[in-house]
Amino acid sequence: MKFFLDTADLDEIQEAASWGALAGVTTNPSLYAKIGGKLDDFHAHMKRICDIVGPECPVSAETVAMTRDEMVADGLKLAEIAPNIVVKIPTMVEGLAATKELAKHGVPVNMTLCFSVPQALLAARAGARYISPFIGRFDDISQDGLAEVGNIIAAIGNYDFSDSTVNGEQVEIIAASIRSANHVTQCALMGADIATVPFGVLKKMVQHPLTDRGLDSFMKDWEKVQNA
Ligand code: G3P
Fold it and tell me: Alpha-carbon distance 207 to 189, whole Å?
């Protein structure tokens, strides 16, 4: 499983990148609004993120266009920001058509706001490079987000979509709307290719009370060695 950071905050991205396990970044309009992002700075901000993580790490930048042609035009402009930009498009009719067109142009697409197996299958067939099923938002309405992600992973894994994607790559599932380290565990056990996590969850993923306790006792014992 690879880890993406789900944020538009440059400090968080810088910090997570320095830890050595970051493979990409996902953003959305809400995350950009959260950091006080301005409309005329959007492309420049996405470029800053691309520069921090480097060319090997995909950075998802979301379109807010609502028609196929506007999404394609917006997506082509976003793709000019940097070679590692992935255009994020909502899973809807216009989004599927735009994904198909952008894939023809060699632009990778992350289909977002995906909540069901049929949506995911359509996204893969339209040529999405990534599909982002949401977990936490199911949990928000007292439904089982993990179960749905498991269904999507299993269904997508039943087929070969490489003839639909840019450069014949396999579509990858990004488990999104992750709210806890346990969500990450369960997604990894189900075989999600990627988890995109908020910085707070990434920090919790590193922690374990037995690690802290073990480190504490090692340090105390080493002090004894030094004083022996
Ligand atoms: O990547 C999508 C994700 O940001 C949505 O998360 O917590 O707003 O449901 P959340």
Answer: 19
